[in-house]
Amino acid sequence: MEALVIVAHGSHLNAGSSAPTFDHADTIRATAAFDEVREGFWKEEPSFREVLRTVESDEVYVVPLFISEGYFTEDVIPRELRLEEWDPDAWDSDGTSATHATLRPTDVDKTVHYCGPVGTHEAMSDVIVRRAESVTGDPEVGDGFGLAVVGHGTERNENSAKAIEYHADRIAEMDRFDEVKALFMDEDPEVDDVTDFFESEDIVVVPLFVADGYHTQEDIPEDMGLTDDYRDGWDTPAAVDGHRIWYSGAVGTEPLMADVVLERAADAGADVADAVERVRAETGSAEPADD
After folding, report:
1. What would the mean pLDDT of 51-68 be, rounded to a whole number?
2. Distances, alpha carbon 149 to alpha carbons 63, 191, 242, in Å
3. What torsion do the CA atoms of 217, 221, 227, 229 make, to the nearest 10 degrees?
4. Has this prediction a pTM greater than 0.85?
5. Does some domain include residue 290?
6. Interior CA angle at 38 toward 10 and 259, to 5°?
7. Which domain covers residue 153, as residue numbers?
8. Residue 159's pLDDT is what?
């Protein structure tokens, strides 16, 4: 038997933080690609430490629903899963190229395929583009538009910015949007000044966050000038400094995100090709906006 375990941060304060994890797990569960699909959290139940005990399968694919490689993916999760032979060098990563490692936990008789985070997988670029399609309602969006990929950014973890820049560069190479920029909350270039970095009148802003919360629903909209008070909401698009800002909210809420989870498992050896095809078909493209 084979199982998929999706591990995410979760939150004691924001009930919606875990919603994308459950949604993507449900999407994958419906494909029947795995005998079991489970969720595990740092700040909710079941915890990282206990989640493998909820699984009957003897072969488990663990996929972190995190954006960047760093403290949680390289230290916390392996420690809590009791993967004592884990070594970050097993991923042979430059900060955005994590692969997978096959290990044995010390407390349960299982083989664990520990995968890199979803946020650094190349398929995430497709999800960002799909997010732009979804917020504009235009499956062909790109011509005449700028795209801002927004991350938290932090001087404490250089990989936080690397993931954002990686996807901005990949999408720029598609030549779909007139301009593509990587912007950040806590380092330069800052999303507060989003209109300073684009000539395009229309700018789609996609935050590379797993779930909507304080940053995506309060900080970023106010910082960009979409609204003076997030509690009053904002227009989509919103007029700011002579531009139209199409703000999408967290990329992790996009249904196509389930595909990235499956792609991570596939890279580790899971036979999920049919499930990937089904998820891509069922999550579909955006519907054209009404004239």
Report:
1. 97
2. 23, 9, 20
3. 40
4. yes
5. no
6. 85
7. 124-253
8. 78
| 194 closest CA partner among 226, 160, 234, 218 | 226
Separation CA 282–CA 2 (nearest Å): 23
Task: Answer whether 126's CB lies under 8 Å from 206's CB.
Answer: no
Give the span between the Cα atoms of 284 and 256, in whole angstroms. 8
Q: Are strands 238-240 and 179-184 parallel, antiparallel or unpaired?
A: unpaired
User: Among residues 58, 53, 65, which one has the least CA distance to residue 25?
Assistant: 65
Cis peptide before 105 (omega within 30 of 0): no
pLDDT, one tens digit per residue, over 180-209 is 999 998 888 999 999 999 999 999 999 999
Q: What is the secondary structure of 73-102 as a DSSP string?
A: IIIIHHHHTT-TT--GGGG--SSS---EEE
Instruction: Give the residue among 179, 177, 143, 184 at the shortest CA–CA distance from 162.
Output: 184
Show the tokens assigned to 242.
């002579």
Total domains present in the chain: 2
Confidence (pLDDT) at 156 = 61
Task: Please state the separation of Cα 89 from the chain's center in Å.
Answer: 23
Quick one: 129 and 218 in the same domain? Answer: yes
> Is residue 139 in some structural domain?
yes
Query: Is the pLDDT reported for residue 291 higher than 60?
Result: no
Residue 132: is its pLDDT beyond 70?
Answer: yes
